[in-house]
Every structure is written in structure tokens, then in C-alpha cells.
Design a protein that fits this description.
Layout lengths: L15 H7 L11 E2 L4 E2 L1 H19 L8 H11 L21 H9 L4 H38 L3 H18 L2 H7 L3 H13 L14 H11 L2 H4 L4 H15 L4
Antiparallel strand pairs: 1-2
Helix pairs in contact: 5-6, 6-8, 9-11
Length: 252
């Protein structure tokens, strides 16, 4: 049977004040954030505490606060050595392949990188990536040089036989540094093949009278020049090959 709400013994509805008083502070809510009179969380105190904590964390991390004014941000960047704009970075290119890039500078500036930090990014790129690029370029160039020799000798099988003959002859008649240097280019291999056909004794073996070391060192230094291994400038390559021919006494 429905309850008669008009009966005197009916349970009275709690007033708002009694309902609030019945609420107790949850254990996970600190006392300073609890309004006992209202029986609810003090949102204003919680928000104030959060903003203070956010500001403190920003100060400790060295980053400007999210609500920093443009003036505060400008002072922060000046103190940290951050330019006003990405174009303000003064980057010293560690290599021709690692010059300053506008898009990268914009990303570094957005991350509040100082000029020294931005320079470090470029320096690390040159230190880590350039050897990989050089290695890849050397492998590509070696494949191209090998293809030239295969075509010159009329096929891979015939070149393999001649290459073995040249290698055996070179180990018997040339010093290891010269054989190694001439074996890295198609022009050098052809020079070795010519010396072998002519029966030239070439460079004396270790322990015999050798040519001036400075000449050989100079040629090997030239082989490390990008004009030799990267851009493959014909005149520069010819100078190296002719230099080795003169070194071993087989210049025609």
C-alpha cells in the first residue's frame, strides 16, 4: 500500500542543511580542500593549489609557465640564449651536407632550443650520419666501378678469372698499400692489368728499395678527397691513376 504522506509519523524530508551536514569528507580529499559546512570540495582552493604547483614545476624544469606573458617569454628566451625567431640561430655547418635548414630550425625554436643546443644537433648529425652516408656512397661507387670492369672484360665470369690473376700477380709484385689503392677503382684495376700483361715488376716488395713515401702518401690522401670517391671527377681520378703509374715506373 502506498505510504500516506499526510500522516504525522511520516519520515520528514531532510533539509538542505541537514543533508550537507550528513556528508563526510572522503579519505582521498585533503582536509584543506574540504568545505565541512557545505559538505563539498573547495574548488577554488584546489584550483589555486594546482596553479601554484604548475608554476613551480615550470620553474624547476626551466620552461616558461603556460600562462606566461609575451614579456615573460621574451625574458626567458633571452636568458636561455634562444633567438627571438628561428632565423636568429647562428649555425656553423660542420659539413657541406649538414648546413642549417629552415624547417629544422623552426622545430628547434618551437622546442625552445638555445643556439648551443641547436648547434649540437647539427654536430651530432654530422658525427653520426656522415660516416653512414660515406659508406653507402662507397658501396654504390664500388658496384658502379665493378660493373664498368665487367663490361670492359666481356662479362662477370671472365672478369672474375682475370681479377684472380691480377690479384695474385699484385700480391707477388707490389707492396700491399699500392695494390690496395689501385684495386679500389676501375682505372686502377686496368692499370694493374696492363702492368701484368707487360710483365713489369712494378713497386718493390717490402724490404727492398721503395719509392719516396711522401709520393705514395700524397696519392692516398688524394683518394680520400671527395672529388675521387664521391663526385668522381675524371681529371682528378686520372691524376691519381697516372701518379701510381709513375710511382711504379710503368708510365707509357
Amino acid at each position: 500500500m502506498p505510504e500516506d504522506l499526510l500522516q504525522p509519523d511520516a519520515t520528514p524530508m531532510p533539509t538542505p542543511s541537514s543533508a550537507a551536514a550528513a556528508k563526510t569528507r572522503p579519505p582521498e580529499v585533503p582536509e584543506k580542500f574540504w568545505d565541512q559546512a557545505r559538505g563539498e570540495i573547495r574548488v577554488d582552493a584546489l584550483l589555486k593549489s594546482y596553479l601554484s604547483l604548475e608554476k613551480l614545476l615550470s620553474q624547476r624544469s626551466g620552461m616558461p609557465a603556460p600562462d606566461a606573458t609575451p614579456e615573460d617569454l621574451a625574458r626567458f628566451r633571452a636568458a636561455m640564449g634562444i633567438p627571438e625567431a628561428p632565423a636568429g640561430y647562428a649555425i656553423t655547418a660542420p659539413h657541406d651536407l649538414c648546413c642549417a635548414d629552415d624547417d629544422i630550425n623552426a622545430r628547434l625554436h618551437a622546442a625552445n632550443f638555445s643556439n648551443d643546443q641547436a648547434q649540437l644537433v647539427y654536430d651530432l648529425a654530422a658525427e653520426r650520419l656522415l660516416p653512414l652516408i660515406a659508406e653507402a656512397a662507397a658501396e654504390f661507387e664500388a658496384d658502379r666501378q665493378r660493373a664498368t670492369l665487367i663490361e670492359h672484360f666481356g662479362g662477370a665470369e671472365r672478369f672474375a678469372r682475370i681479377a684472380a690473376q691480377i690479384s695474385a700477380w699484385g700480391r707477388a709484385n707490389l707492396s700491399a698499400p699500392v695494390l690496395e689503392a689501385l684495386s679500389t677503382t676501375a682505372e686502377g684495376v686496368l692499370a694493374l692489368e696492363q702492368m701484368m700483361r707487360k710483365g713489369e715488376p712494378a713497386l718493390p716488395r717490402d724490404g727492398a728499395a721503395a719509392p719516396a713515401a711522401a709520393s705514395e702518401e700524397e696519392l692516398r690522401k688524394m683518394m680520400r678527397d671527395p672529388r675521387y670517391w664521391r663526385t668522381r671527377e675524371p681529371d682528378f681520378i686520372r691524376r691519381v691513376s697516372d701518379g701510381f703509374r709513375r710511382l711504379v715506373g710503368t708510365e707509357s
